[in-house]
Each structure stands twice: as structure tokens, then as C-alpha cells.
Design brief:
Layout: H1 4-9, E1 14-19, E2 22-28, E3 33-35, H2 39-42, E4 53-59, E5 70-73, E6 78-82, E7 87-92, E8 103-108, E9 113-118, E10 125-127, E11 130-133, H3 140-150, E12 154-164, E13 167-172, H4 179-188, E14 193-196, E15 199-204, E16 210-213, E17 228-230, E18 233-239, E19 244-247, H5 250-259, H6 268-284, E20 287-292, H7 297-303
Parallel strand pairs: 2-4, 3-11, 4-9, 13-18, 18-20
Antiparallel strand pairs: 1-2, 5-6, 6-7, 7-8, 8-9, 10-11, 12-13, 12-14, 12-15, 15-16, 16-17, 19-20
Helix pairs in contact: 5-6
Length: 306
């Protein structure tokens, strides 16, 4: 979070951002609670009145989770619970804050409406008796988006995405495959417009067009842009002793994209929609396995494919 002087200049009682074309409103009615964004999320600020997701923040007591049905445990800081018959609760825990969650987020069934409850004075900094928090503290924003998109023909993919002279290129890979390396190569050679080096949102439009969006969840190259583009080619990355691309079939491409996505295992509807979207993606966009060397020659090689 920013320093206190910076926080005093950039404090919000309500704000709106757009990530992947999803408009998110964040607000609070508490006088002793306010918001501050990271420099990354500040790029996504918008002035639109309408929203697709509305989040209200407040401080309060943490619920008794033992009586709730746990749907998924991440192995990290968050767990997902069933909240009534048509809703969810996400709890966030850290050993540094004891056994109780440091915050919980309640959502309705389609993740269009949420309420975030914070343990007082553990989530932000105190400025003039006001607790200033980052409303998009990782991983809340990404979890919210994964669930919201899953039933709206959208998906988050592990990948570097860039647009090169009108060609949208997705370089997808698991951890260590070279996503940030690929982004850095294009950046250092002043080639293309890089939207993200780590996570890209893909959405299917009403007319069937597939659009990719940059996200604030960048990788080690630290690249993120709130831009969008069509998708023309997909490359599944691997390190190799030479630059070589091989066109791969739909079944292979399908399984690779599933592995590199963020599926909602806890929601049968979300999984069904996600798998349907992946099927549409791989049937519409040619996919390659791309072995590459970490130097600028890979740019010319990739360009030779279109």
C-alpha cells in the first residue's frame, strides 16, 4: 500500500474500475473506512455510472465458519463456502492475524453483488482515524472475476498477450514456461503492444467474436495494460534449443487450455460454461506448441507464421 502522504491524496469513499470489460463499483457507508488503489489498479478507473458487480465494504465480526459447508480450500489464504441456498462466502486467513479470518466476502449466486466484511484495523493503514484499505487486495479481485466470468462466457488464462500490428497473440504457459520472458523480449525490442505478461481475460461477445483483455495481475515482467484485442493465434510455450512451432490438434489444444485456465471446480454450471467457451476458443483460433530461445529472433520467427 502507498505511504500515508500518498494515501491522503488518493482516498476514495466509492470508486469504479473496469477489468476485462466488467464494471466494478466499490463503496462504503462507514465514516471510518476509505479506499486507496495501487498504481496498477488505478489504470483501470472509470467514470461510468452503471456496474456489473457492486461491492460494499464494512468492518465487523467474523462469522462462525464451522457451521458452513466448505466447497473448496485453496491451500493458501482463501477458502470458499456455501452461504445459504444461492450464495457464497470466501474467507481469507493468515497466521499473522490468528485463527480468525482477516476478512470475508459474501456474494450472491452469480457474483454480481457482494459484501466484504473486514476485521477492524488489520487490513489497511490508519490515516486521521480512518482505516484506508485496498479494495482489490489479492486474491479477492481475481476470485470474484473468475466466478463472475465463468457464467458469462469469460475465462482467465495463464498467458502473455500482445497485439502486433493488428494480430492478437496469446502466449500461454504454466509456471516457468516463459510468459514473462516472452513479454520482456517483445518489450525490449519495441515490438507490439503488450497487454499482460501473466493473466489474460478472454470473453466471447454476443456475435461470437473472441476478445482478449489485459489485467492488473501481472507477472515478473510487471506488464499490464487495460486494453483489448481480437485473438488470432495461440502459442503454448516451452523452452527449447531452437525456435520451432508445431500446429496442434483441437483435443490437445483443449486439454492444454483447460490446464492453463482458472476453472470453478465448485460450480457445475461454471465448469460447463467454461469448458464450452474453451471449446469455442480452440475451434476458432489456430493453436501451436512453440519452443523458443530467449532472444529477439523469436519475434521474426513468430511473425513468419502470419
Amino acid at each position: 500500500m502507498n505511504s500515508i502522504p500518498e494515501l491522503q491524496k488518493n482516498m476514495y469513499k466509492d470508486l469504479r474500475v473496469s477489468i476485462g470489460g466488467v464494471r466494478i463499483k466499490v463503496s462504503t457507508l462507514q465514516k471510518d473506512l476509505s479506499f486507496s488503489l495501487t498504481n496498477v489498479h488505478s489504470k483501470y478507473l472509470i467514470n461510468e455510472v452503471k456496474e456489473d458487480i457492486s461491492l460494499e465494504y464494512m468492518t465487523g465480526e467474523m462469522p462462525a465458519l464451522s457451521a458452513m459447508k466448505k466447497l473448496f480450500e485453496s491451500g493458501g489464504v482463501w477458502s470458499l463456502y456455501e452461504n445459504g441456498s444461492h450464495g457464497y462466502l470466501i474467507s481469507f486467513n493468515s497466521p499473522m492475524f490468528g485463527n480468525e479470518p482477516y476478512k470475508v466476502a459474501y456474494f450472491n449466486g452469480d457474483f454480481s453483488l457482494g459484501k466484504v466484511v473486514l476485521r477492524k484495523n488489520v487490513n489497511g493503514k490508519i490515516v486521521n482515524n480512518v482505516e484506508v484499505v485496498n479494495p482489490f487486495d489479492y486474491p479477492l479481485d481475481e476470485l470474484m472475476m473468475v466466478n463472475h466470468l465463468s457464467i458469462r462466457k469469460g475465462i482467465i488464462i495463464h498467458g502473455c498477450f500482445l497485439n502486433d500490428s493488428g494480430k492478437g497473440l496469446l502466449f500461454s504457459g504454466t509456471s516457468g514456461a516463459g510468459k514473462s520472458t516472452m513479454a520482456t523480449i517483445w518489450k525490449e525490442n519495441n515490438c507490439g503492444t503488450i497487454f499482460t505478461d501473466e493473466r489474460v481475460i478472454i470473453r466471447e461477445q454476443a456475435d461470437g467474436a473472441l476478445i482478449a483483455y489485459g489485467t492488473p495481475w501481472h507477472g515478473t515482467a510487471g506488464i499490464d495494460l487495460p486494453e483489448s484485442s481480437s485473438i488470432d493465434k495461440i502459442f503454448f510455450l516451452k523452452h527449447a534449443s531452437e525456435n520451432k512451432a508445431e500446429l496442434i490438434g483441437s483435443s490437445d489444444s483443449f486439454s492444454r487450455l483447460v490446464v492453463r485456465s482458472f476453472p470453478t471446480f465448485w460450480s457445475s454450471t461454471g465448469m460447463e460454461c467454461t469448458l464450452s467457451l474453451i471449446s469455442n476458443i480452440i475451434s476458432s483460433v489456430p493453436s501451436y506448441e512453440l519452443g523458443f530461445l530467449p532472444d529477439g529472433k523469436v519475434i521474426d520467427y513468430v511473425r513468419s507464421l502470419y
